[in-house]
Amino acid sequence: MAGEEASDSKVSLRTFLEHLSGAGKAIGVLTSGGDAQGMNAAVRAVVRMGIYVGAKVYFIYEGGTIIGSARCKAFRTREGRLKAACNLVQRGITNLCVIGGDGSLTGANIFRKEWSGLLEELAQHGEIDKEQVQKHAYLNVVGMVGSIDNDFCGTDMTIGTDSALHRIIEVVDAIMTTAQSHQRTFVLEVMGRHCGYLALVSALACGADWVFLPESPPEEGWQENMCIKLSENRARKKRLNIIIVAEGAIDTQNKPITSEQIKELVVTQLGYDTRVTILGHVQRGGTPSAFDRILASRMGVEAVVALLQATPETPACVVSLSGNQAVRLPLVECVQMTQDVQKAMDERRFKDAVRLRGRSFETNLNTYKRLAIKFPDDQIVKSNCNVAVINVGAPAAGMNAAVRSAVRVGIADGHKMLAIYDGFEGFAKGQVKEIGWGDVGGWTGQGGSILGTKRTLPGKFLEDIAQQMRTHSINALLIIGGFEAYLGLLELSAARDKYEEFCVPMVMVPATVSNNVPGSDFSIGADTALNTITDDPRGPRGPGTKTCDRIKQSASGTKRRVFIIETMGGYCGYLANMGALAAGADAAYIFEEPFDIRDLQSNVEHLTEKMKTTIQRGLVLRNESCSENYTTDFIYQLYSEEGKGVFDCRKNVLGHMQQGGAPSPFDRNFGTKISARAMQWISMKLKESPGKVGGNRYQCRSSVKAGDTRTPFSVDRGKRFVTDDSICVLGISKRNLFFQPVTELKKETDFEHRIPKEQWWLKLRPLMKILAKYEASYEVSDSGQLEHVHHRGHEEPAAI
Question: What is its quaternary makeup (predicted)?
């Protein structure tokens, strides 16, 4: 954690920015509009990054957040903006960071355009002089979107959305318990006057029976269709129904659809015991999720860099999230597209509204429709292919959501889906059976692995597994798991020459709390583990969770105290580093960045100086395998000894609680979408006609009735899949989804330590240090130029 020297390939951020813009700049940061969880983390990042590069940073109060958030009527008038300009000039502020929604950002852009005229008018009135006009000739504006609705076009996620989803899913999980007990139907109304994102993703994350959105109204006759759907689900022995309604839900004629109206319909038509729950402002409350804390911190730092790189010709921009990458987009274009969505809805062009809302929204909607609505068997074109799904490695929250998604997409594609129980060991023993659409109902919110999972590799069972693949005529395999799943896929790939049964399409979806699978920035389960580390104990995982938030609360009494927390991850420091960034920790020790006793001593001295001020708590995270000798006990004893008289120490080993609990909304959604995409890839591969290199005893061909006009699913299973691109890992890299041949990933893998050789999150490590007030070096290569909203590459986009 000690400050590191800049090398040829890494430029000191302070040196880079001082050379770029000079010292002495002033930045004003304000929050405006509705409050959103994560705004405070964004403000903190702007302030500390600004101070780090030598700028003065000013709070603009009552722009909740710590500095206050408000909708200002005076600012909408020219007189109000004149007063605001005068206030800024008097303090030398010509760089404005605005955190708010589209209204706030639009107002800031108008303010920027009027700036020179406002200054001239102020000079004419004698409120400022000509020298001040020249010195503050232009205003730079950079926006960050803080909105729980995720209603701003140009970004995959806005600050606050993930936290709001946590509040919603917490309620849904609680409601499902009582609904099952009494066989009730619940109508849950969530926020979203003009945007249905919260409703849609909540429905996707809990497997709701029906969802009402303003962008995609139900078709004419929806009342009858919904009642049929609810009764069909009850007939499948489902004991509860969940209907989610966005507060701005409308029909195709733009008439409101209310939660009370839906309740009356269900009671009248079906006679079900039906209750309405309106969440309201609960969704805005509580502590921010780990995702929102990290997103806000990344965006805040990027906003400062953007401000200091800006010129008088640079248009106002918004710092956005694209996949896993921070990008800058023109504010005007984003606002225009956001307004175009509302215009499309007003004009009843609902398909256009969905498209304009963005790729994340569109993907979510399409996935929900595929998973929620089961067509009658006689309407599904049968492929006569058998596709198996297996969990491998340690359990990870979100695995069950991924299995549910795979099973339902596979059935919708006409496949017979097979579940393999207890990993490769169970596979070898023949623990394989068909799994149906209804069998996976209610799985999205379940933690652990319902199929059972083991770390055993397939190497010593290859003969038995090949026999089971013959016995069950398995035509494709989906593996959901961690590093053991990756190693298992490599072993199956290597065994293709000996066992023709393995010459079928195989794809792995990463699922591990360690987030250490090569080929993907994210793994299912890692977000839940991060929330376990950082969440407030009042959050979804209950009062027994000893998290960093709770630890900070316990340390905020009269005693100065430092907590040493050990996280899981093996040799991968993802949880420790990102948990530290999310929790605002003072240090994080990881294997990927070697440290010695001098670094430990430097950190102790840093904390000692900090504790001599008004600060009363310190937080240090340690990855479980970061050092063989500098153990958690050693670090605890060192801090205890060196901090005598200033602070005392406590330690906490979180252990396997990071693997348990209900999956976070992110992991439910991510697991659902990435697994659905994996199944689409399998179906596509099975339709291909690879070169015939050998016969096989079992074939899958579609059975289409005479006169059926649907496209047949034609597969010749006599053809074997032997090319590298038929056995892949599916993952996210920056802003795109990639299917990468597992054999190509070997060269990118550190097998001894079970981690990728290059890990994207290490670039964020300096941010954690800077925000903890350390000197650090920071790669600025990812600080991009302004892009356009409509720009899309040839790769497949990865909407988070």
Answer: Homo- and heterotetramers.
Each residue of 235-281: pLDDT tens digit?
Answer: 887 788 899 999 999 999 999 999 999 999 999 999 999 999 998 87
Known binding residue 736? Answer is no
Q: Is 656 annotated as a binding residue?
A: yes
Query: Is residue 192 within 8 Å of residue 171, measured between CB atoms?
Result: no
CA triple 645-648-649, angle to 5 deg: 150
**737: amino acid identity, one letter:** L
Cα separation, 451 vs 496, in Å, equals: 26
* Across 495-499, 559-563, 737-741, 783-787, least confident range: 783-787
Catalytic one of 8, 35, 129, 149: 149
Separation between Cα atoms, residue 89 and residue 198, nearest integer Å: 40
Strands 274-278 and 325-330: unpaired
Return the closest-CA partner of residue 733 out of 666, 798, 782. Answer: 798
Tokens of residue 324, six digits: 């896993």
The encoded tokens of residue 203 equal: 């429905």
Nearest to 582 by CA among 317, 355, 297: 297
Alpha helices (H) along 1-141: 13-21, 39-52, 78-90, 102-124, 130-135
Q: Is residue 149 annotated as a catalytic residue, yes or no?
A: yes
User: Helical H runs in 447-504?
Assistant: 462-471, 483-494
**What's the token pair of residue 610?**
């900090």
- Residues 6 or more apart whose CB falls under 8 angstroms from that of 124 comprise none
Q: Is 1 annotated as a binding residue?
A: no
795 belongs to an annotated ligand binding site = no
Mean pLDDT within 288-311: 94
Is 455 labelled as part of a ligand binding site? yes
pTM of the model: 0.90
Q: Which helix (H) or strand (E) holds 365?
A: helix 359-372
What is the secondary structure of 244-305 as a DSSP string? EEETT-B-TTS-B--HHHHHHHHHHHH---EEEEE-GGGGG-SPPPHHHHHHHHHHHHHHHH
For 42, 510, 670, 773, the CA distances from 667, given in Å and listed in that order, are 23, 12, 5, 32
How far is 42 from 99, CA to CA, in rounded Å? 8
Enter the DSSP assignment of 726: G
Q: Is 691 annotated as a binding residue?
A: no
Give 652-690 pLDDT, tens digit per residue.
988 877 777 899 999 999 999 999 999 999 999 999 855
215 in a labelled binding site? no
Q: How far is CA 543 from the centre of its chain?
A: 24
Tell me the mean pLDDT in the region 366-382.
Answer: 91
Cβ of 229: how many Cβ atoms within 10 Å? Answer: 18
For the chain, give the mean pLDDT.
87
Q: Confirm whether residue 513 is marked as ligand binding.
A: yes
Name the pLDDT band for 22 (thresholds 50, 70, 90): very low
Separation in Å, CA 24 to CA 20, 21, 27, 649, 770:
12, 9, 10, 39, 19
Question: Do residues 798 and 737 make contact, with C-beta atoms less than 8 angstroms apart?
Answer: yes
Q: pLDDT tens across 246-259, in order?
A: 999 999 999 999 99
- Known binder of ligand: residue 328? no
3-state class (DSSP) for residue 417: strand
**748, 495 in Cβ contact below 8 A?**
no
How many whole angstroms separate alpha carbon 718 and alpha carbon 83?
Answer: 78
| Residue 794 scores a pLDDT above 60 | no
For residues 297 and 291, what is the distance between their CA atoms, to the nearest angstrom? 10
The pLDDT of 750-774, averaged and rounded, is: 93
Does pLDDT of 699 surpass 80? no
Rg (CA), the chain: 28
List, in order, residues 6 or more apart from 127 with CB less than 8 Å away.
Answer: 86
- Torsions phi, psi for 508 (to 5 deg): -110, 135
Q: Was 569 annotated as part of a binding site?
A: yes
Give the pLDDT of residue 282. Answer: 80
121: exposed, middle or buried (Cβ count in 10 Å: 0-12, 13-18, 19+): middle
